[in-house]
User: Which sequence fits this backbone?
């Protein structure tokens, strides 16, 4: 009986920390993706569209030329005016997204106030690259 109790206690000591580590690792990945998204959005906010394209994922760079990206971003952001405030709304991880290869993604929604649009939702999809960095794979404003 004592041997069974000792084995059960030992198992609990091993399993509980492992269970606690998994959400922490996910939280760490999500935090890293959010941090990278904020840095990438700062480029967009500053009108540095060429740099934002260069720092986007291969998915973006293969889907649209830098010139088309710059033109589209300038048109979309000009109508919004300057950013006044941005807050994190939500962030969740995904492995499969429609029209994208399987991988590690974090879909981030920011609640933003712009000069000409007071209640916008910015959705930034971040993709983990082979080198471990997070890069923008999608950007939508609603």
Assistant:
């Amino acid at each position: 009986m004592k041997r069974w109790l000792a084995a059960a206690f030992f198992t609990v000591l091993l399993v509980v920390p492992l269970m606690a580590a998994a959400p922490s690792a996910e939280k760490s990945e999500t935090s890293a993706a959010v941090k990278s998204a904020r840095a990438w959005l700062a480029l967009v906010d500053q009108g540095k569209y060429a740099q934002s394209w260069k720092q986007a994922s291969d998915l973006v760079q293969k889907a649209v030329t830098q010139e088309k990206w710059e033109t589209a971003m300038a048109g979309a952001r000009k109508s919004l005016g300057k950013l006044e405030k941005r807050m994190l709304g939500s962030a969740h991880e995904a492995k499969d997204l429609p029209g994208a290869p399987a991988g590690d993604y974090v879909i981030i929604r920011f609640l933003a106030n712009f000069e000409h649009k007071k209640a916008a939702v910015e959705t930034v999809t971040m993709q983990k690259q082979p080198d471990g960095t997070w890069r923008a794979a999608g950007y939508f404003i609603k």
Remarks:
- The mean pLDDT is 83.
- The CA atoms of residues 111 and 121 lie 5 Å apart.
- The radius of gyration is 20 Å.
